Amino acid sequence: MNLNEASGIFTGVLIYGGMILAAAWLAMVIWTFRDMRARSRDKLAPVLVALMVALLTFPGLIIYLFLRPRETLSEAYERSLEEEALLQEIEEKPTCPGCRQRVQQEWQACPSCHTRLKRPCTRCGNLLELSWDLCPHCATPVAQYSDDRAARPAATPPMARPAQDWGTSSPYEARRRGEIEFVDGDDANT
Question: What does pTM read for this prediction?
Answer without folding.
Answer: 0.46
